[in-house]
Amino acid sequence: MSSRMSFKRRWDIFCTVIDNYGDIGVCWRLAKLLVQVHQQAVRLWVDDLAALQKLHPNTQIDQAKQWLEGVEVCHWTSRAFDMVSMGDVAEVVIEAFGCELPIQYQQAMGQKGEASCVWINLEYLTAEPWAAECHGLGALQNNGVKRHFFFPGMTKGTGGLMCEPDYEVRRMEFLNSLTLQQRFCQRWNLPFDGLDDAIKVSLFAYENQGLLGLLDAFKNSSRRVVAFLPEGKLLNDLNAQLGLSLQAGQTWQTAQLTLVVMPFLPQAAYDELLWLCDLNFVRGEESFVRAQLAAKPFVWHIYPTEDQAHFDKLDAFLAIYPTLAILKQANVAWNQEQWHLEHWHTMVNVLPELLESAESWQNSIKQLGELSENLMTFAKKL
């Protein structure tokens, strides 16, 4: 019997916004899947409603509680749990990315007891082998409740990736419909005429010293390049490096490059941008996952850490990702904040092969099962 038919629980998901939109992006998507696909009752506790508003424009940042797409969204403030009791504790509690639950809530969990409360730490995504080894393990906490570790992943033995049931239908409809593509471009004030003759690239990354080298490669491309740059860190970086003041709705033309500055997109619209483009630059975790599902070649900018541990994550992923060496080299260079002309010149010539490998990878990760479904099964067994 499907978990969505036989398992109905109250869930609390706790999220602190650290990596801009990655943390809240993952938690918001999970909350929607649990409510809309699995018919669960979900409260999403988030400390930065402005970040959620970027992903869901109807979010009211001055509201302590509100309902969005069936999810009860609650503002997680320092006083939110002053009067919490065990009756307020959900039956399944998700601590996203080790955000540390409020101490009052932890105490109420202890009063409720482990038999009535499942505590799951949803971890960061990594392809490193230890993730599969640690997936599902648990450890007793000071409040007497065991905390279990759930690892998203792209390898066997992990929790898989999030994907909506109708995702592939929507993707193929978009790819096969010029009308839908034109409608998307019109909605976000993007050029549509002449796109077929250009290489389309989306640019979503942290600040990167390799940006000017990348744009120089686009300028000198053998084919025309249309690059879509959303508002955010990379646009601010570009304006600072070139002394510009570009903003959403403006276009910058130079040689073979047309740079289109666009608004920061809600989640569903961002999927369509990934589908529209031939190559996607993505960052963090949420857009990294969506790029894989989009079955298009991509370059991943990992959130950089001072100890350089992010290169271990990159190496682990590239070791399992079945693509050409040039794309792997480009991923390494971009995370080293570099870009070389030969990267782009070579990639232009092998775009069909890169697309084929991206499609193959999408098929393989779908075999792992979908994360929210796997999480439901995991919670039910505890």
Could you characterize the architecture of this molecule?
Keywords: Glycosyltransferase, Transferase. Belongs to the glycosyltransferase 104 family. InterPro entries: EarP. One of its GO terms (molecular function) is protein-arginine rhamnosyltransferase activity. The chain has helices at 3-6, 22-36, 49-55, 103-112, 130-134, 167-175, 178-187, 211-219, 233-242, 267-276, 286-293, 310-320, 325-335, 341-349, 351-366, 371-381; strands at 10-15, 41-46, 65-68, 71-75, 92-96, 118-122, 138-140, 146-150, 199-203, 225-230, 251-254, 257-262, 279-283, 298-301. It is α/β, with parallel strands linked by helices. It has two domains: 10-159; 166-367, Glycogen Phosphorylase B (Rossmann fold). The strands form two sheets. An eight-stranded mixed β-sheet has the order 3-4-2-1-5-6-8-7, with helices on one face. Strands 11-12-10-9-13-14 form a six-stranded mixed β-sheet. β1, α2 and β2 (41-46) form a beta-alpha-beta unit. α8 packs across α14, α12 packs antiparallel against α13 (325-335) and α13 runs antiparallel to α14. The chain is globular.
